[in-house]
Each structure stands twice: as structure tokens, then as C-alpha cells.
Amino acid sequence: MAGEIRTYLVGRRNSSVQCDIALPESEKSVSRKHLELTVTASGRCYIVHVHPKNTTKVQGRDGAWVPISQDYVELDTPLMLGTHHTTARHLLALLQQPASPPQASPQHTPSGGQVEWDPERGTFLRR
Fold first, then answer.
1. What is d(CA 107, CA 77) in angstroms, rounded to the nearest whole number?
2. Over the stretch 94-113, which tens digit does the pLDDT of each residue have?
3. Which of 38, 43, 62, 126 is an S-S bond match for 7, by CB 3.0 to 4.6 Å?
């Protein structure tokens, strides 16, 4: 609903922790409770890294990956949870249609490579 603030727990699928957005169990570099993704009333995304061991990083304009503990991110800012590449938009899409990936065509990364959607991993992979 418009005007509400919603927070979702993002993590690796497992039997002991219930996540709102669960990534595949095979993603061992993603913690069972990896981060909280809050969507503000104005539609902004705020990420809080909650696991002390595995990292959360954002990709800067220069292509370098920068670790964060908490920060606002754009929907399409590249994120790395452990070694799992995704975006806030793709994480939120898993809430609405866990079996269906968002419609997307291959995209170009700042380094000039191409990324394509991998439905098994629920994320874009560098090709």
C-alpha cells in the first residue's frame, strides 16, 4: 500500500530461519539472515547488513565494489551479498513472483561485459 514503510529480511533459504526474501540454499556465501531491505513510504530502498561474517557490497560508479553496513540504494544499484550478484529490484521481485524472474533483456556492466538473468540463482550473472 502507498505510504507504508515495509522491511523484508533477505537471506539464504533454510529450515531454521524464515526469510521474507529467500535466495537459493546453494548460495552458501549468503547468510541465513543476511540483510534487511526497507522500502520507505516514498519508494526509496534502505539496506542494513545484519550478519557479521558475510559481506554486503554495492558497486560504485567506477565499478569498484564497496562494503556497506547500511545505506540507501537505488532499485538497480548492483549489490553483492557474499558472492551473489543482484539488485534491490530483483530481490523485491522475488516477493511477488518467486517462480518467475522479472522480465529483462541482457544489460551491459560498467566494465563492458554483459549480464543475463539466471532463473536458477534468481539473479543476473556476468557473461
1. 13
2. 986 444 444 444 444 455 55
3. 38
8 A C-beta contact, residue 58 and residue 21 = no
Report the distance separating Cα 79 and Cα 122, nearest Å: 13
Assess contact for 35 and 10: CB atoms under 8 A. yes
Contact between 55 and 49 under an 8 Å Cβ cutoff? The reply is: yes
Task: Give the DSSP H or E segment for 11.
Answer: strand 6-12
pTM above 0.85, yes or no: no
pLDDT single digits (tens) 42-73: 888 999 999 888 899 999 989 999 999 999 99
- Region 6-126: CATH code: 2.60.200.20
Give the pLDDT score at 109.
47
Distances in whole angstroms, Cα of residue 32 to Cα of each of 11, 76, 100, 110, 117: 5, 23, 22, 30, 23
**Vertex 30 angle, CA 44 and 89, to 5°:** 25
Pair 84, 29: CB distance under 8 Å: yes
Rounded to an integer, the average pLDDT of 112-123 is 57
